[in-house]
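Hey, I was hoping to borrow your eyes for a little while. For a while now I've been wondering how a particular protein folds. The fold is given in discrete form, as structure tokens running alongside the sequence. Could you read through the record and tell me how the tokens relate to the sequence? Take your time with it, there's no hurry, and the full record follows here:
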Amino acid sequence: MGYRQLTQIQRYQIFAYLETGISQRKIAKAIGVHSSTISREIKRNGLTSGYAPEQAQSASDQRRRTAWKVTKRLPSLIRWVTDQLMDEWSPQQISGFMANANGVCVSHQWIYALIWDDKKHGGTLWKRLRLPRQRRYQRQLAKRAGLGKIPHRVGIEQRPAKVEERRHIGHWEGDTVLKGHKESGLVTLVERRSGYLLAARLPTITATRTAQAMTRLLAPRRGAVHTITLDNGSEFAEHRKVAKAVSAKTYFCDPYRSCQRGTNENTNGLIRQYFPKGTDFRKVTNAELRSVVNKLNDRPRKRLGYRTPAQVFLGEYSGALETAGAALIS
């Protein structure tokens, strides 16, 4: 919902709800605003003794009267901002510098609005931005999808040493193959010993969708899932749901150490032969993806004694292939 100034009536409602002791989130829902609006209102217009609607309205009115709205339209200000943009300052840098230098409160959103208005009239200020508008929007979407810290993250240093030996199946590596900045993609899971590949499409990249896809892939093979070593992307933020569903433990590589998932990285490179960078996975069918996965699983590998990943994984999983525990498969 768009931002709107709170009214006097809404401030009285906030006061009444606060007196009853209900949460700020419930207050926001009751009066039809975002929860952050309530938090900001109490922080900015509240008193040390509590929240008073009359004083809050007065403080808000005073702030609006002394706002820099007129100053923002001054040609001299616009010229100065334009000069900094031409000097390749970012809108955030300009906004922060102005606030520190002379207290003029010009938000970075206002500067972006100035840039796009300039573009609409044939200007070139937008070319000075480090990220095009579309990429900035995609990055915002990626943040909403869960980018950030991964809860309950366990580092790879705590993974059992025997996983590194690749003597038994059941230890998987996971990552994503993406279009652009997390517009769409695949989640890929590769079994370390056999190189057996599982993959699913992700029309949109969110932690919930990724966890659901991983569970769907691994659940039928839960008897051969003991550990999963993942990339640090926030699309894996709900890893504990997957671990619980298949009774496995999840671990995460060190930052910027994709070599710790070498099998997965190599397999993703093979997938790119069929789905080059720029592929929109929303337009890839499940049948097309299954065809590629089957091709890779049925391709002989030298390190497997020229057996295929499917032969080794399915053979050792079923017991038909008596190579489990061997350092080398021949």
User: Anything to note?
Assistant: The radius of gyration is 27 Å.
